[in-house]
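Appendix B. One record, verbatim.
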Amino acid sequence: MRILDIDLDFFQFGRMEDVPNDTKGRPGGDRVKPWSVESTIEFLEGRCHLNKKNKINGCIVEQHHEVFHLWKQMIAQNQHIPPFTVYHVDAHADLGMGDSSWCYIVGELLHRPLNQRSNVPISGPEKLNCGNYLAFAIANRWIRKLNFIINPNWHDDIPGCYFKREGEIPYGYHNLLIQLKKYSHEQINEMAMTRSEPEPLGYEPEVPFEIMPHEEFNATCQFDYVFLSTSPSYTNPATDKLISIILDYIEK
């Protein structure tokens, strides 16, 4: 199963940062501006190789973490058989950054049996949200490989707790591995205080993680499903004109 997971904010000049999860506002044109229709079509057809005459099954959501709940539902109904490969087209990595979800994932979620991990918190500082849902999906072992397609506005927003890294990740192609690790609460407190990494209590399977600039991306596969998130808190209202353009390739 190959999933094309698109966030509308990918198709903008500029990138919104540190947006509160409960905000209802829309950013103005002084912060982000939409790509042209022509550039959007060129990416969808020239890079993703989508075809309006051969639409792919999919759906549209407002907040990106709604995709997690859809995956859970589809897996329960045997519509998606995990693990699957995800092509994440987004201005953000959505692996968790600036919240405490990583503490919950490595300190609690990974300690559960696998069949109980999809019941994730929907409130509190560690809750599932649009900026961390892919980490929760990986913790459920739903993702075989994660391909992150970035645009020129991207800069490093990959949590260092999920893989080995040396310094900041620059814009460009990177072939990495994500591996979640299980820790006790005491070890997590030690990590926060000393900035050291104790020996984990356990390791999750490694997940290949490729970061690919959009100008180098060239899909070599047929996608089985497409998800589009409109992410209104991250997109200029003028970017909404691109929603119908993208939906032309999706069979809802």
